[in-house]
Amino acid sequence: VLFTPFQKSFPDIIIELDEGSSLDMSKSLLDFKNSLAIVAKVEENPDILFMPLLLEEVVLIVAPNHHLAKRDKITFRDLNEEPIIMKEIGSGTRDLVERYARGEKIRLTVVAQTSNMEFIKQLVKQEQAVSFVVRSSVETELSQGELISVPVRPENLFLKIFIAYLRDYELPFAARAFLDYLLSFTHPKNLF
Predict the structure, then answer these.
(1) Do the beta carbons of residue 64 and residue 167 sit within 8 Å?
(2) Which of 33, 87, 90, 157 could be 21's S-S partner, Cβ–Cβ 3.0 to 4.6 Å?
(3) What pTM did the predictor assign?
(4) Beta 48-62 vs 148-150: how paired, if at all?
């Protein structure tokens, strides 16, 4: 969605995508492996500038036949002893979910962790576990009924997503063009 219009405006720029946890992507900036990263801010770093980009809803996904699929809403207490596949350590999604669980004094039963979204979807579809993921990563499966999203109360979970880059580093032309492009769609001061 974001890349096609950018590619039309800048056909000679090839975007190289890396995948990893927010912590890994922040480290890739510090190691000069990437110029820009789109991350959930897991920890502050004085060398990295984080600019608000968007809010992503984090949802609990279950298989259509899972016992929680029929529920209108659940609480974190309902997840006590429920097998959960989590995003890897350093993931903003995982950090958010674990903070809420700690606030509710619930210890989640994490049976696996991975950065591979397809693996998470498959384990959930096979009723091996449930998982918390950003809604946009499972929109297709939700719309086709392959997965079910169950609201977790007392409130919806939202993950703050940032564009990150080194504070005292002049971005290369391609990275600056992409940053300007992304910022043209947002009003960062109004996001969070």
Answers:
(1) no
(2) 90
(3) 0.83
(4) antiparallel
